[in-house]
Amino acid sequence: MLRNLSRTIKFNKNQIRAFHDCPTNAIQPLRLLLIGCPGSGKGTQSSRLEKNFGVAHLSSGDLLRKNITEQTALGQQAQQYVADGKLVPDDLLISLIDSELLNVGNTNWLLDGFPRTISQAEALDATLNKLMQPLNLVINLQVPEDVILQRIMDRWIHIPSGRVYNLSYNPPRVPGLDDVTGEPLSKRPDDTPEVFKVRLDQHHAMATPLLDHYHDVVVNVKGNTSDEIYPQIESEIVNRLGVLPGTMPEAFSIASLRQRFQQTATAAAAMTFVDTNEEQVEEMAVGASN
């Protein structure tokens, strides 16, 4: 066991030194919430952040649509609300999000589309407090309403994967078909001017108290296009948290180090390592081999 732990120490030597040398804010795992009107580009920005920062993208809308397509118990309950352009009840969404947060564990993540109300925010706060993973950045996307309406009228999706296409600026290579699978694309049942107006009114009624709730970590980002907005988001992540594109800051967290060492030693030995001098453990390993 100790020999395995010694090999793990050598393998992670550079990471351990980097962990000690990094400034505190550079090793904070990213806990990001995106807020914006329906069609403001939360999905597009999430995809870029997922690619550039290696975060887990938790989209309440995508999770709901997947459950509706698969006709799960949750999907059947939510289906009519979505078709009518109404908000899905809190208890259904909270149950879904709680489950996903447990699944992603200690990785970096971003939330897209949840919470939308104060009651949802309070439920999320309670869950994150239990997990000791508080939000550290909230991005509020501000896009003109006429721009958003044109976006949703041109939007097509691949329901199984959640991939989104737009005929104006991100069309599929073959009209009507998903680029990856070749399967047919669909229109969302709520992508109509009438439903958009209902959802927009709902958003405005709820956005102000929600943004007030998170005022300490809210940043407003304005623009007409995704290319205008994304650099602002990336800049906020870098400046506020010290996280650089292409890096994996969660690899240097104490919790992650413990998790790595648990793979090659007992939990007790791995936890002890965090507070043990490297040379001492090396000596223990040598002694065990004699």
UniProtKB/TrEMBL annotation:
GO molecular function: AMP kinase activity; ATP binding; GTP binding; nucleoside triphosphate adenylate kinase activity
Recorded domain comment: Consists of three domains, a large central CORE domain and two small peripheral domains, NMPbind and LID, which undergo movements during catalysis. The LID domain closes over the site of phosphoryl transfer upon GTP binding. Assembling and dissambling the active center during each catalytic cycle provides an effective means to prevent GTP hydrolysis.
EC id: 2.7.4.10
Record region (NMPbind): 59-88
Keywords, comma-separated and alphabetical: GTP-binding, Kinase, Mitochondrion, Nucleotide-binding, Transferase
Family matches, as InterPro entries: Adenyl_kin_sub, Adenylat/UMP-CMP_kin, Adenylat_kinase_CS, Adenylate_kinase_lid-dom, AK3/Ak4_mitochondrial, P-loop_NTPase
Cellular-component GO terms for this entry: mitochondrial matrix
Region (LID): 154-191
Oligomeric and partner information: Monomer.
Taxonomic lineage from the root: Eukaryota, Fungi, Fungi incertae sedis, Mucoromycota, Mucoromycotina
Its biological purpose: Involved in maintaining the homeostasis of cellular nucleotides by catalyzing the interconversion of nucleoside phosphates. Has GTP:AMP phosphotransferase and ITP:AMP phosphotransferase activities.
Pfam family, one: ADK_lid
Organism: Mucor circinelloides f. circinelloides (strain 1006PhL)
Protein name (Swiss-Prot/TrEMBL): GTP:AMP phosphotransferase, mitochondrial
